[in-house]
Amino acid sequence: MLRSTYDESWPELWKSSYMWDDLELWGSRRNLGYSYQYQIRREWSLRTIGELVPAGGAILDVAGASGNFTLPLAEKGYRLTWNDLRPEMAELVKRKYEFGEVDFALGNIFDFAGDWSGRFDGVLAAEIIEHVAHPDKFLACLAGMLKPGGYLFLTTPNGRYFRAHNPRFSDCPDPSVFESMQFKPDTDGHIFLLDCDECRTLAAYAGLAIEHIDLMTNPLTRGHIKLGRLLPYLPARLVWALESGTKKLPRSLRERINGQMVAVLRKPEK
Description:
- By secondary structure, the protein is an alpha/beta fold.
- It has one domain: Rossmann fold (3-Layer(aba) Sandwich), CATH 3.40.50.
- It has helices at about 10-25, 30-50, 70-75, 85-95, 135-145, 195-205, 220, 235-245, 250-255; strands at about 60, 80-85, 100-105, 120-125, 145-155, 210-215, 260-265.
- It has a seven-stranded mixed sheet with strand order 3-2-1-4-5-7-6, sandwiched between helices.
C-alpha cells in the first residue's frame, strides 16, 4: 500500500483521511490511545481473515473508507470488493493502491443484497454496525452475501464498556427513528453499541453461528480517563504487556474495562 503525499489542493475529505492515516498507519504520536486501539483491531482483522479464509478467496470490505483493510488483503492475494457511499473515497484508495485485485462498488450496502447473494468467502464489517439503524437487518444482509461456510468478521465498540452510553438495540421499540442519522462517520455517528449477548442474538436472527467472540483494548491502550497522558512516556512493549494481561481477567470484569468487541460469525454449510 502506497503512502499518499499531502496536497493542500485536495478535497477536505481527503485531507481528513490523510490525518487519520497518519494516526492509524504511519506512526503519528498525536493521539497514541487512538493509534494503539486501531492497530490492535486492524491486526486482529487481517490476521483472523488470513487464518480462516482460503488464499485467493473473495472478500467484501463493507464501508471500506480509505482502504486500510482492503489494500493489504488484496496484496496478500485475496480478491477484494471495496464498498463505500462516498465516490471521492474511491479515488483516494486508488491513489494508495499498489498491487492486487480490487473491485470498487459505490453505494448503500443494502442495495447490493440481490446481486451479491452467496458471492463472498468472507465479509469484513469493521466499526460499521454501530452506525446502522437496523443492525439486525444489516447482519442478515451480509449473511446473504456469504457463501455457505463463509465468515463474517465484525469489529465494533463494546456496549458494556464503562464509558459506553449509547442505547442497546434491543431496548429501542422503533429503530426507524434513527434512520435519518445512520451511516454518519466517527463516534458522532454511533447509534447502538452491542455487547456480546446482543451480538449473539443478532447473529442467530441472521442465521449465523458464533465461531469466536472476544474483548480487547483496556483504558490505558485507549488513552481513556486521562491515561492517554502517560502513553508518550511508556515503552510500547509495556503497553502491549498490560493489554495482554487484561485478557487474563475474569470475563465479567473484562466486559467493563475492554472497549472493543470482535467476533467471527459463520454461515452454516448447506
